[in-house]
Amino acid sequence: MGGLSALLSLLSLVGLVGFLGGIAFIVISASQGRPVRAGISIALAGLVVFLLFSVISSGIIIVQPQERAVVFNVITGDLQEPPLSAGTHVVIPLLYEFTIYPVRQQEYTMTDESGEGAQVGQDAVIARTSDGQEVRLDVTVLYNLDAAQLNLVHRRWQRTYEAQFVRPTVRNVVRTVVSEYEAEGVYGEDRSELEGQIETTIREGFQREGLELTGLLVRAVNFRPEFAEAIERKEIEAQELARAQTEAERVETQARGQANASIERARGEAQAVVLNAQAQAEALRLVSEQIAANPSLIQYEYVQRLSENIQLALVPSNSPFLFDFNSLAEGNPDFVAPTVPEAIVPEIEETAEPDN
After folding, report:
1. What confidence score (pLDDT) does residue 228 get?
2. CA–CA distance, 56 with 98 (Å, rounded to integer)
3. Which of 148, 168, 213, 227 is the most exposed place for a label (fewest CB within 10 A)?
């Protein structure tokens, strides 16, 4: 496509050179008194070639892949629907005029940074918050022309859509949305919400005019230095307060945990005591039941715990016995019930008296 356009331009240039050369030949021949017919033929041929290929060239539209062409009928005043897509197209010269528009993504930046914005010098959007604070915002919009609505763009703005629509629309929307927020919110936690609202409003406005918003970047939000310092101090104080509260909550939680642990430990110990007492009571109850059922059990247990080499036991005759010696003697002729003569007891007692 580019080669065809270059060829047509070259042929048109050749025709123009031939025409000028023929005129020069005519002038030189006439000054020397020679025939000028050859010069006239060369000039006419060059003129014909120049006009022919100029007209043909003006009737050929070469549209690149990221472009579209709006075609205007100069007689009816209508725009051809739809706009011409990428490729080579032929139209009738002088009857149709065409304007090529880019449909690739475009960028428009308004900033205070030197050499970055679309305008020279400081071009950030200046707005005021709901509480009267002035703020400067560096804003970049990414957009493209809707290929299906290029005729609308051409009717409304033609080639001035960026300067007369994109720029004023973005600046107006930013100012309007910022005026709905307080300065502290714009500086801090409401910034993402602010950007979302700006983007939504701009997108809706662009769609009505045949443009598509593909991205919005609020690159900087700058307040007056004294206000920014005050906000930063306030945020630092809030962070320190939050840190102190967190530490206090941690200490309180730790203390509560220790107290709960002590309570649970005491509860466990109390339950252990109760269970131990219950176990002992149950054991005593079982022992009592067994003794009631078998009175000789105590005697048996006593004998079992005596040393194996004990053969004689002396017990007072006037003391209560744990054993029923009569029952033990039955069936055992060798068993002698242990007794202590009463006459011995006084002697034991006298012997036990201390000397006066």
Report:
1. 64
2. 14
3. 168
User: Which amino acid is it at 76?
Assistant: T
DSSP string, 172-183: HHHHHHHTTS-H
- C-alpha pair distances (Å), 28 with each of 21, 25, 34, 38, 40: 11, 5, 8, 12, 12
| pLDDT tens per residue, range 314-325 | 555 555 555 555
Residues sharing a CB contact under 8 Å with residue 105, sequence separation 6 or more, in sequence order = 142, 143, 144, 214
- From CA 195, how far away is CA 204, in angstroms rounded? 14
Per-residue confidence (pLDDT) for residue 352, from 0 to 100: 46
pLDDT of residue 351: 45
- For strands 96-102 and 87-90, give the pairing: unpaired
| Residue 23 phi, psi (nearest 5) | -65, -45
Q: Could you write out the DSSP letters of every residue in 228-263?
A: HHHHHHHHHHHHHHHHHHHHHHHHHHHHHHHHHHHH
Tokens representing 263?
């309570």
- Listed in sequence order, the residues at least 6 apart from 46 whose beta carbon sits closer than 8 Å to its beta carbon are 14, 15, 16, 17, 18, 19, 20, 21, 22
Give the pLDDT of residue 256.
81
Q: What is the helix (H) or strand (E) element at residue 135, kind and residue range? A: strand 134-145
